[in-house]
Design brief:
about 240 residues, single chain, seven-stranded mixed beta sheet, 7 helices
Length: about 240
Amino acid sequence: MFVSTTASKDVFFCPEESDFYAYCMESLVLNTCGNSQSIVEFGSGDGMPIIKALSKTNFTGRVHGYELNKLACEVAKAKIAKAGLSHQYILHNQCLFESIKPPADYLVSNPPYLPASDNKLYQPLLHGGTDGITVTKKLLDLGYKNVMVLAASYSNPVGLIEDAKSKGYLVANFTISPLPFGEYSSEAKVRNQIAEMRQNNQAFYSERLYLLAGVLFTKQRKGVVDVSRELLHLLTAL
């Protein structure tokens, strides 16, 4: 995760990653979801990715965002109102995992994926467990028919795909972007963890770059070609 030096410690701020998430929302979900009328988002942050994606598509349904960080939720609500999307993008200042499972055709998220031994990081809510995929696996446990998440090449991508398959998911589509290491991902605790993971073929990156993928998992079988092999071929290339 790259972060501007002007970022707040309390609200995740990374224009490059947010723009990529917005693009993934637009291309993998909003432009292809047909008559779907409800989307649930885990971890809305400042709300900008969904705002940008909604402004570029003809999606007429609603997105219900769940954001645990109170300050981030307040910032997002203000931006949503300014964009005139309060009727379409509804924010909930609560944890999705502790809520009654809201019905939706899609679950989407840029989940925490920083691998580290604990969450004592610059921004603790970005901790994704010891291998970076703990939260993503919990999202798949919710059982939504379609799940679009961002997945990092240094956060056990092979383990993530294997976990998704064990839960009945195929990889229906994906898109990939290279990102530079930045303030969050350059913390010593994170770099030490991914170096150890690399020795176990769980992390893939170069000295300057890692790969970030927007991945659309689906439980639908009819007409879907599973492209998980192609996805892993690319994510493990570095």
